[in-house]
Design a protein that fits this description.
The protein is an all-alpha fold. Helix content is 35%, strand content 0%.
Length: 77
């Protein structure tokens, strides 16, 4: 499955709806491959992200979509 997240300029409601719909992955059989592409996310060099993304990042600051994908990753851990 391939997905495309709402862009940074979209409303918060459309983003919440998109990330809620990602829960469908929880219902996939384990043997299926899961692919997720293009979250329109920028992950920055904030100290709080180091444990998630490491020391290297292309961006100085995260955008809203970047914050959302990190939160989603932490929920799944």
């Amino acid at each position: 499955m391939n997905v495309h997240a709402p862009s940074q300029e979209k409303s918060g409601d459309s983003k919440y709806s998109f990330y809620d719909e990602l829960e469908i992955f929880d219902n996939f059989p384990r043997y299926n491959m899961k692919k997720i592409w293009d979250f329109n996310a920028k992950l920055g060099k904030e100290y709080t992200l180091k444990s998630t993304i490491g020391n290297e990042s292309l961006h100085q600051d995260s955008n809203d979509n970047g914050d959302r994908i990190v939160k989603l990753a932490h929920q799944k851990m």
